[in-house]
């Protein structure tokens, strides 16, 4: 009996400690009435200004989905462009609530910055792009080349690691802003340009003669890209995580922005929980039970967001590849909403 009392006391102390640290960002977002998101300064397919001056992209869709989860309104999201160097400071300082910016998740970033990765919303790899005039078919042929790269990124570290492992000499040309890198590469200031392959494809689509450039076959790294939040707020972490998973689950069950109202009649218990027909899932997150329904209604499922921003019907024309649902041979796998 005495032992049980000690266990109970310890459990109460743990729960009290957890409650004291949970909900800080969640409450802050609720009180100010919007979600502040940090995105890249302009990567087509992920976050870029459209012709009307608004923001579009996979990461922007995630930000708006978070606003829907919290407030039921995609307009209650604010987009802030942050450079690779600025991004972690912006999140650490509270300038942004979440960093959906295409950021590689890694052990060092999870353990040294006071931040934590939530999950992956795009599986990528780092590559290198060259002008066809160089007449090279492999990165192994770039001995002595100049390579444009952004500072303060895993890209910069991976580039050095790969060339060192191949005993190849290169000269980095370090440029902070992505748009400036692309201009430097286009005018020949560097022989090659390195970045995530999705980023290279986006840059190539905006160059004057896209067919003049090759993305070489080598993969320098694994690049699991996803949002980050500050450590110490499990409630906000859960909101971001399950917003992502809801979009993946919707795709798996065939729920789209066009049929979501019809799917409310589904007898599938998984669909009923996801769409709030069976109550409780939203309450567990501290939000409305219709949170996932509203995301799908306004934004769509993950596949719809991918297709619109990155897929064959977009300027980038990227295949799903690793970002396909696990049912189609990809890695995308939403956890069960139950």
From TrEMBL:
It holds the Pfam family SBP_bac_3. One of its GO terms (biological process) is amino acid transport. Residues 34-263 form the Solute-binding protein family 3/N-terminal domain. Gene3D superfamilies: Periplasmic binding protein-like II. The keyword Signal applies. It comes from the Bacteria. CDD domains: PBP2_BztA. Residues 1-22 form the signal peptide. InterPro entries: Bact_solute-bind_prot3 (IPR051455), SBP_3_CS (IPR018313), Solute-binding_3/MltF_N (IPR001638). Keywords: Signal, Transport. Belongs to the bacterial solute-binding protein 3 family. This is Amino-acid ABC transporter-binding protein YhdW. It comes from Achromobacter kerstersii.
């Amino acid at each position: 009996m005495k032992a049980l009392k000690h266990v109970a006391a310890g459990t109460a102390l743990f729960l009290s400690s957890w409650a004291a640290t949970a909900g800080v960002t969640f409450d802050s977002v609720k009180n100010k009435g919007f979600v502040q998101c940090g995105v890249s300064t302009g990567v087509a397919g992920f976050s870029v200004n459209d012709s009307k001056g608004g923001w579009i992209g996979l990461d922007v869709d995630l930000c708006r989905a978070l606003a829907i989860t919290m407030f039921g309104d995609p307009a209650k999201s604010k987009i802030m462009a942050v450079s690779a160097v600025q991004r972690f400071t912006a999140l650490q300082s509270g300038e942004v609530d979440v960093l959906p910016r295409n950021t590689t998740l890694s052990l060092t970033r999870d353990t040294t910055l006071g931040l934590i990765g939530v999950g992956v919303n795009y599986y990528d790899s780092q590559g290198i792009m060259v002008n066809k005039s160089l007449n090279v078919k492999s990165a192994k042929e770039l001995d002595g080349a100049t390579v444009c790269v952004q500072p303060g990124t895993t890209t910069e570290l991976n580039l050095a690691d790969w060339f060192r492992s191949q005993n190849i000499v290169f000269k980095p040309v370090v440029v902070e802003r992505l748009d400036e890198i692309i201009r430097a590469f286009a005018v020949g200031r560097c022989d090659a340009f390195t970045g995530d392959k999705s980023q290279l494809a986006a840059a190539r689509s905006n160059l004057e003669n896209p067919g003049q450039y090759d993305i070489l076959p080598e993969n320098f790294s694994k690049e699991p890209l996803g949002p980050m939040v500050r450590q110490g707020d499990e409630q906000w972490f859960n909101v971001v995580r399950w917003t992502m998973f809801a979009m993946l689950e919707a795709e798996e069950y065939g729920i789209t922005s066009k049929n979501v109202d019809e799917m409310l009649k589904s007898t599938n218990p998984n669909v009923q929980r996801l769409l709030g027909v069976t109550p409780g899932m939203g309450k567990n997150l501290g939000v409305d039970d219709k949170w996932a329904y509203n995301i799908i209604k306004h934004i769509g499922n993950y596949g719809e967001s991918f297709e619109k921003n990155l897929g064959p019907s977009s300027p980038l024309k990227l295949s799903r590849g690793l970002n396909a649902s696990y049912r189609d041979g990809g890695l995308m796998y939403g956890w069960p909403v139950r």
